[in-house]
Design brief:
By secondary structure, the chain is mainly alpha-helical. Helices cover 75% and strands 0% of the residues. It is built from twelve helices and no strands. The protein has helices spanning 13-20, 32-50, 52-70, 77-108, 112-117, 122-135, 138-152, 162-183, 187-206, 214-222, 225-234, 242-271. Helix 2 (32-50) crosses helix 6 (122-135), helix 4 (77-108) runs antiparallel to helix 9 and helix 6 packs across helix 8 (162-183). It starts with 12 loop residues before the first helix and ends with a helix.
Length: 273
């Protein structure tokens, strides 16, 4: 360490050095929307490399389920339920299952400490990751819905409703997946919970509701993806009741807000422990 005479230092350096022993003043925290955009772009770039093979798996899985169900269900309401449930299942596979695994691994490896040191709001981290994972479901969901319509002879005219179904169902399922991953004490348990959630979306979303026992139908009503499935299934009719479609989408949006709020709270809880 070299010593420099005090008379050659610029004015104010000594004062600054004296104050350096105290607590350093941190810069202002980033605003929510710019921070959200930065986290979203970073997560989207990461997921593009790591999740594309799994997205193909999710799409092939849903298309395969529709092919198997083609010889079991009748045309009409049951076919609409199978196609809508299979399309939303792609969202559940990525936004719920993979996001639960991601946050579980992030918590188990200490990766949350990195995000905790960044001057970004906790909501930006959760919403950015959830939005990136939900965005990756768009191609697979569209391919599954179009394939299902062609396979079961359903109309393609109202598939534009996926513009609302994908982000709303994605937000609800991504919030649930993030909360499961952040609240699970171990990464293995987060993986298990994500798999169970996707299995519930498969069994309760793809199978026609009128063939389920009453108790299972009540459990189906508690699943966030159910309302996205119902909204999409209603549009396959000859004369869709748009009031019911909007009602299902509104419920899906409300569940998404609640689940993302719970995930944000879980992030704060996990980051300070």
């Amino acid at each position: 360490m070299s010593l420099v005479p005090a008379d050659v230092l610029p004015d104010g350096v000594l004062a600054d050095g004296d104050s350096a022993s105290g607590a350093a003043e941190l810069g202002p925290r980033a605003r929510l929307w710019p921070a959200l955009g930065a986290v979203y772009r970073a997560q989207l770039s990461r997921a593009r490399v790591a999740r594309i093979p799994l997205l193909f798996v999710a799409t092939f899985q849903s298309v395969g389920i529709m092919i198997l169900m083609r010889g079991v269900v009748d045309d009409g309401g049951e076919a609409r339920a199978v196609v809508a449930g299979s399309a939303v299942l792609v969202v559940a596979f990525v936004a719920l299952n993979l996001l639960a695994q991601y946050f579980g691994q992030l918590r188990g490896s200490g990766g949350l400490d990195h995000y905790a040191t960044l001057p970004v709001p906790p909501a930006a981290v959760v919403l950015g990751a959830a939005g990136a994972y939900a965005s990756f479901t768009v191609p697979g969901t569209v391919v599954t819905a179009v394939s299902g319509c062609l396979l079961f002879g359903l109309p393609l005219a109202h598939l534009w409703v996926l513009v609302a179904v994908i982000p709303l169902a994605g937000a609800a399922l991504a919030g649930l997946g993030a909360a499961l991953g952040l609240l699970a004490p171990r990464p293995e348990l987060a993986t298990l919970l994500g798999q169970l959630g996707m299995s519930a979306a498969l069994l309760l979303g793809v199978l026609p509701a009128d063939r389920m026992p009453r108790a299972v139908q009540l459990a189906r009503d508690l699943l966030p993806s159910t309302y996205g499935v119902e909204a999409l299934a209603r549009t396959f009719g000859d004369h869709p009741d748009w009031a019911f479609v909007l009602g299902d989408l509104a419920v899906c949006a409300a569940v998404g807000v609640v689940s993302l709020a719970v995930a944000t709270w879980a992030y704060r809880r996990a980051a300070v422990r």
